Amino acid sequence: PASKWEILIHIADVSNIYYDGNEAQFKLLREAAERRGQSRYDLPFGPLHLLPPKALSALALSTDDNSANECVTVWAYIDERDGRLIEAGLERTIIGSPKALSFDDATNLLEIESQNVPKSLTNTRAIITVAERNLSLWSQRRTERSETAQKREKRLATKEFISQELRAAGNVARDDGVGGSFQRSRGHRLVDSSLDLYAVAITSLMKQKKKPVPRAAGSGVDRGGRLGTAPLRRYIDGMCQKQAIAVLCGHGKPLSLDECKEASKLASRASDTVANLRSTKKRDGLTNNKQRGALHKVARHISSTGARKLKAVSSGHNNEVVILGTGAVARCRGVKGTLKGGE
Questions:
Q1: For residue 49, which of 292, 233, 289 has the smallest C-alpha distance?
Q2: Are 259 and 34 in contact (CB under 8 A)?
Q3: pTM, whole model, 2 decimals?
């Protein structure tokens, strides 16, 4: 129909390092990614990336002029009248240098009056405005029709509320979702909807081909989990990308069901290792300065009001709660079962 728009979502192509039989250096990178599992951003000395810095730089999208970037691209036709996904596909592509925008940059560009937009950003604003309109319609339609999407929306709303509590207490200075910094500005929602569409399209296309897909624990179809959207940060997404390219683009040999399960096990093992280290760190009493500050705020509140009961909301993680008005994070004890996010 004449009312359709084509949206292209480009993800860096890292599939070369996951192919068997590739050069020795690729094998070393693959083995390192298997062991690490995912990038970490919660360490005191800075990020610990999935891949070594030089490999990460070589594989990431470059914003340099005249650069050529290898991508795995989902194309999708969306009906601008109601957000219906008309058709979608996946291809290996080479694109030029993208325009780099932070979440704040994108939000400001969407909200600024057109006459105040710098000339150099006029085309950028036009593109993301059209993208936002169509992706918002698609996302709204999906939420209305999918129980999975509705549950995910509730989880995101809870995360947003908790993050607002932490920010109000001065505990968060980031905007990328790390350390309780979850936000849903227009820039965040634009990226979130794009990645959701990318995952939904790959899931549907692979289902049509009746082929398995490597998935991380807790990211199944029933939870609306992401698929192949962060191969530079998560090993399982790199393996998903490899499988999608093999099945949908005919590049390489597809993974068997057992191989997909093995990839999922490796990802879960690495994730469990990280979780165990975090748990040990907490047991050892290594509380950060922000948490200590929040606890002092709780103490002052109790001292000034005489209150012995405090309102808190569950984060949805192992009966962890955020004490309202203070930003303090604590474990709720004496509760039967597990608290749901938002309780």
A1: 233
A2: no
A3: 0.80
